[in-house]
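Continuing the batch. This is chain 6 of the set; chains 1 through 5 are on the previous pages. Same settings as before, nothing changed between runs. Recording input and output for traceability.
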Amino acid sequence: MTPKNYNKDFVQNTIYVLNKNFESIKKQNLEVTFLINCLTGLIITTHEKIGTTKNTVFNMNLEELPNYNKLPSKRAYLNYNKGMTKLKDQLSKHNLLDLIGNLTIDFDISDCSDMRLIEFLNKIRNGIAHQHIEPIDHNGQWEGIKVWNIKDKVKNFETIFTVEELKDFSIFIAEKYLQIN
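Output for chain 6:
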């Protein structure tokens, strides 16, 4: 194959190796490492393009996505900015002495369904890049990974991928990227 478009070729090649080589890699107990590498490469390679493209699946909220089942089933997001806005609003309207024992701190923790896909990918990228990742094992075998993001010393995102979810999600991201490229 003659390389023409790095991003598109990389994504197509990643789909190919995910489909063609996965079982062989799984037999060697290297599937999680392989899948993390594939997903990281896909996120980094596609990030610039999807960040500037409007009206695509990457700008949709997770709950609106076709193939919503390709997402990891365990996800949580602390909307830190929304909570800080509420807190600042309370602090601006009252004296601190009046708030002793009466301060309401209301942070929104959701299952990420109202998060845009591009934001979800960015949280995963940040988690992997900052090594906020840990294996989930059962009897010495990796069953998945937990990835989280930290903002201002607060964990504001966490997701758990099973091995199958990690594979499906990687292919899903690759296919959606190719649809807009």
